[in-house]
């Protein structure tokens, strides 16, 4: 119940296309869903995050869509560029005020944007 | 804001020696930091949660005597890999939780990682 399942494992998109990465979770207590971008040899960088009180959040070219009833959320990258080529991780946690909640990570998606 | 640094960025050591990795939150105080391990082309595996002023909480299967964690201040946590062996070679990444109010909740920001190679 603590798992977050991410798909696809890898994705190749032409420049300007809209890659979509999907994640699904089981634990209905999760209420914080971030996406991280990781380049080779670097630590993950927080891209965008959403809480279940909204169904969509957009920051720049990155959009999260959230479906609470289906327990799914996805990342869309608009006007993708070769520089977006990286590994993307979704995650989930319980956003409690007290105590630090652990992030449960998806398996990762290796995204390649071809020029 | 919310910058986390790690030192060293890479280290090579001989089998049997100990290695210390530092994780610092540069522009905020972090009562909680996390240590992860990542193998090539795999996801992040949480090793332990480090709380300032108290003992770390280790995940199941992580040897607490081998991976010593100290969170002595609100901006520094250290991970010491004791008696390192080649199988300990990995990418170690820390993260720090932003205090409530600064970013609204449970945001974690990651350090750049430390590549450990044990010969």
Short characterization:
The complex is a heterodimer of chains A (115) and B (119). Chain A is mostly beta strands. Chain A has strands at residues 4-7, 10-14, 20-25, 33-38, 45-50, 56-59, 62-67, 72-77, 86-92, 104-105, 109-114.
Elements of chain A, N to C (H/E): EEEEEEEEEEE
Please state roughly what percent of the residues of chain B sit in beta strands, choosing from under 5%, 5-15%, 15-25%, 25-35%, 35-45% or over 45%.
Answer: over 45%
Helix content of chain B: under 10%
Instruction: Indicate the overall shape of chain B.
Output: globular
* Assembly status: heterodimer
- Please bin the fraction of helical residues of chain A: under 10%
What report would you give on this structure?
- The complex is a heterodimer of chains A (115) and B (119).
- With 115 residues, chain A is mainly β.
- Chain A has no helices and 11 strands.
- Chain A has strands spanning 4-7, 10-14, 20-25, 33-38, 45-50, 56-59, 62-67, 72-77, 86-92, 104-105, 109-114.
- In chain A, the strands form 2 sheets. In chain A, strands 2, 4, 5, 9, 10 and 11 form a 6-stranded mixed β-sheet that branches. Chain A has a 5-stranded antiparallel β-sheet with strand order 1-3-8-7-6, with no helix packed on it.
- In chain A, a hairpin with a 4-residue loop joins β7 (62-67) and β8 (72-77).
- With 119 residues, chain B is mostly beta strands.
- Chain B has strands spanning 4-7, 10-13, 19-25, 32-38, 44-51, 57-58, 67-73, 76-81, 90-97, 108-110, 114-118.
- In chain B, the strands form 2 sheets. In chain B, strands 2, 4, 5, 6, 9, 10 and 11 form a 7-stranded mixed β-sheet that branches. In chain B, strands 1-3-8-7 form a 4-stranded antiparallel β-sheet, with no helix packed on it.
- Chain A binds chain B through residues 32, 34, 36, 41-46, 49, 51, 89, 93-97, 100-103, 105-108, 110, and chain B through 4, 6, 31-32, 34, 41-44, 46, 49, 51, 91, 93, 95, 97, 100, 105-113, 115.
């Amino acid at each position: 119940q603590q798992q977050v399942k991410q798909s696809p494992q890898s994705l190749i998109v032409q420049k300007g296309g809209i890659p979509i990465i999907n994640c699904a979770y089981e634990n209905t207590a999760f209420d914080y869903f971030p996406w991280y971008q990781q380049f080779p040899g670097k630590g993950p960088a927080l891209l965008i995050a959403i809480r279940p009180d909204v169904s969509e959040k957009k920051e720049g070219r990155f959009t999260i869509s959230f479906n609470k009833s289906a327990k799914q959320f996805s990342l869309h990258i608009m006007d993708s560029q070769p520089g977006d080529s990286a590994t993307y991780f979704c995650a989930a946690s319980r956003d409690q005020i007290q105590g630090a909640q652990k992030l449960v990570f998806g398996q990762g998606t290796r995204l390649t944007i071809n020029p | 804001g919310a910058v986390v640094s790690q030192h060293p960025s890479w280290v090579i050591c001989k089998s049997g020696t100990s290695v210390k990795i530092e994780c610092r939150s540069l522009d905020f105080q972090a009562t909680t930091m996390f240590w992860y391990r990542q193998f090539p082309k795999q996801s992040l595996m949480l090793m332990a949660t480090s709380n300032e002023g108290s003992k770390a909480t280790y995940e199941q299967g992580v040897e607490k005597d081998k991976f010593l964690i100290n969170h002595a201040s609100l901006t520094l946590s250290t991970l010491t890999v004791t008696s390192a062996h080649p199988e300990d070679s990995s990418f170690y990444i820390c993260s720090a939780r932003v205090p409530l109010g600064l970013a609204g909740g449970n945001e974690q920001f990651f350090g750049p990682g430390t590549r450990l190679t044990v010969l």
